[in-house]
Amino acid sequence: MMQRSYIAGCGSYLPKRCVTNDELSETVDTTDEWIVSRTGIKSRHIAADGELTSDLAYEAAIRALEHSNTDPDDIDLVIVATTTPDQTFPATATKVQARLKMKNGAAFDIQAVCSGFIYALSVADNFVRAGQAKTVLVIGAETFSRILDWEDRSTCVLFGDGAGAVVVKADPENSDGIGANARGILSTHLHSDGKHADLLYVDGGPSSTQTTGHVRMVGKEVFRHAVINLAAVVDEALNANGLERSDLDWLVPHQANKRILDSTARKLGLSEDRVVITVDRHANTSAASIPLALDEAVKDGRIQAGQLILLEAMGGGLTWGASLIRW
After folding, report:
1. Active-site entry in 174, 254, 257, 282
2. End-to-end CA distance of the chain
3. Are 194 and 317 in contact (CB under 8 A)?
4. Strands 77-81 and 135-143, bridge-based pairing
5. Of 21, 174, 257, 284, which one is the catalytic site residue?
6. pTM, 2 dp
7. If pLDDT is split at 50, 70 and 90, which confidence band does 178 have?
8. Is 18 a catalytic residue?
9. How far, in Å, CA of 248 to CA of 251, rounded?
10. What is the DSSP code (8-state) at residue 205?
11. Cα-flanking dihedrals φ and ψ of residue 94, to 5°?
12. Which DSSP state fits 219?
């Protein structure tokens, strides 16, 4: 008998240092007006010297565990979605596992760049559906500032650091795993198209250059693919569950660019007040952006029990995906 999973709680963490566009313009050839007009970003958080991705992930995890009233010993699996791990290995998830003093379970990382959280959530959901896990800690965490070329104003103004986490649990009240009106993760949908890898990538790595490298992006092409792919995967998720766009209560998108968010919402016929937006304050935090936005909307009371929530993202690879959730 298949068991549906649900999100029992969430948490997030942002580094203390907040960098405004005006502060950034002191060292980068840019202006607040230029950044806001093209991206909607007004500020971003930057990790402190010595503050690692695992530190951000741990802080978000602690908050999610508290919110869901979950003990670390009850966790079967820790999944960290990140493009900026502490080290090439071991997995950042194992460092979080150690800090949580977990006595059992497994931990590993997932790399799908900005789509990473959706990919990780899909893995967690399928582990629960298969009966191989009852409680999964899913984290999106990034110190993206560490892979930016701070002399490239077309990319360095776009990103920030942060972490968000959710606790995914098997739902004992919905053991048949069916029904779009019952709470839980209704479905997840993942895609990739490797032939577009050169549109958004890092020009380094252990095997190629033996260096970390920096982010490189063909912005106009990424924008075009994002609007098309994100709208398509939203409809795919709705169609899979016999639902309409009008059934959606909230869209919680990857926070890449306000123009992408606006274009996707228009394509779906959604008003802006049904889209959770944090890009203006967080910038693009890659795999962390969706759980950061989700936590904010849950904690401020916008997202309520019984509502239909759609999470979606696109990232380098190209990768993209969506998850439809009845809260």
Report:
1. 254
2. 22
3. yes
4. parallel
5. 284
6. 0.97
7. low
8. no
9. 7
10. B
11. -70, -30
12. H
The residue assigned the tokens 């029990």 is 305
Tokens of 94: 């194992």
Active site residue 10: no
Starting from the edge strand earliest in sequence, which strands make up the sheet with 135-143, in order?
A: 5-13, 161-170, 135-143, 77-81, 106-110
Q: Which domains, ranges and CATH numbers included, belong to the chain?
A: 5-170 (3.40.47.10), 184-326 (3.40.47.10)
Query: Where do we find the tokens 């791990």?
Result: 85
Check 10, 67, 114, 156 and give the catalytic one. 114
What span, in angstroms and rounded, lies between the C-alpha atoms of 117 and 288?
7
CA-based torsion, 259, 264, 265, 267: positive or negative: positive
What 3-state DSSP class applies to 77? strand
pLDDT tens-digit readout, 63-120: 999 999 999 999 999 999 999 999 999 999 999 999 999 989 999 999 999 999 999 9
Per residue in 277-309, pLDDT tens?
A: 999 999 999 999 999 999 999 999 999 999 999
- Do the Cβ atoms of 137 and 164 come closer than 8 Å? no
Tokens of 82: 């990140």
Residue 114 among the catalytic residues:
yes
- Say how far residue 277 (Cα) sits from the centre of its chain: 13
Asked if residue 155 lies in contact with residue 148, where contact means CB atoms within 8 angstroms, the answer is yes
